């Protein structure tokens, strides 16, 4: 009978019981790997390497399932340091959030606010984290072929911020030059990207759907730019995107009654051009910000977390949370 372990009779080995009998563990593993396909082997190897050699950010800062941070606005006897923006960006896993469709728009808006006003006054560490997040967002946009227009606008904003703040920024000139070089590389990388046209595989296309289905789909889109771009692709989609009822619903969603009445004609017997009203309201008031997932802060432990992921609160009773828009999140830190 085979033995398990080492003794004086033999160097020994580990054995495993299979349907065919007892086999050496080492040979049994080889057979298992031979039956797996190449993708499964690559994934298993990658996960094993991550477990053996975890990165410093993963081990110290980032939680894969529940990224959160306890916000401390003032120093106390228990904790003499304040919560920094760079620490929040790492522990809230902003780079990983770019790969989640429900959180990508929130991160994009946050990066736009940072690049528009506060980037030159950030510390060198925070600047590095922001640039790394931009790199992750561009890579994910090219990989998923989503939010290409948003990324182009964001990179243009980043270039303007780097050019305007090169004389009064915080940090060394060498670091600032590296930031500008990285953003220029990302801009060139995104400009070289060409969206692939879908092959004619005989399946239904968007313009092949019934008109009622198209109305329901476009009614769920909050950004008017996406609606207008879709209308430019075919005659069928153009007819749906130009309907007054669609622009009326968008006006009622993004603007309140007082804002709409500002541009609504006083005559009741005329046909209302809701698209024109939306355009004028958008220029004056701006559209309503909508996010599928947002950051929130706990009222009990002051833990900042993603609403969909939650956080391990120390309170045994029910607690309330306050949603944080990107502007509210930045206002928590002394920049």
**Beta-strand content:** 5-15%
Rg to the nearest angstrom? 27 Å
Fraction of residues in helix = 40-55%
Strand order of the largest sheet: 5-7-6-8
- Overall, the morphology is globular
- The overall pLDDT, averaged over residues, is 80
Cα distance spanning the termini: 72 Å
Q: What quaternary form is this?
A: single chain
Strand tally is: 8
Q: What can be said about the biggest beta sheet?
A: 4 strands, antiparallel
> H/E order of the elements?
EEEEHHHEHHHHHHHHHHHHEEEH
**With helices defined by DSSP (H or I, 4 residues minimum), what is the helix count?**
16
- What are the segments in which pLDDT stays under 50 over at least 5 consecutive residues? 56-63
Q: In terms of structural class, how would the helical and strand content be classed?
A: alpha+beta
Describe the structure.
It comes from Biomphalaria glabrata (Bloodfluke planorb). This is F-box only protein 32-like. Pathway: Protein modification; protein ubiquitination. By secondary structure, the chain is α+β, with helices and mostly antiparallel strands. The protein has 16 helices and eight strands. The N and C termini lie far apart (72 Å).
TL;DR?
The chain contains 16 helices and eight strands. It has 335 residues and is of the alpha+beta class.
Quick tags:
335 residues; alpha+beta; two-stranded antiparallel sheet; 8 strands; 53% helix
Secondary-structure topology with pairs:
Blueprint: E1 5-7, E2 10-13, E3 15-18, E4 21-24, H1 25-35, H2 38-52, H3 56-60, E5 68-70, H4 85-91, H5 94-97, H6 101-118, H7 124-144, H8 148-164, H9 173-191, H10 211-219, H11 224-231, H12 235-241, H13 244-254, H14 257-263, H15 274-285, E6 295-298, E7 303-306, E8 321-324, H16 326-331
Helix pairs in contact: 4-7, 6-7, 6-8, 7-9, 8-9, 10-12, 11-12, 13-15, 14-15
Subcellular location: Nucleus
InterPro entries: F-box-like_dom_sf (IPR036047), F-box_dom (IPR001810), FBX25/32 (IPR040394)
Keywords: Nucleus, Ubl conjugation pathway
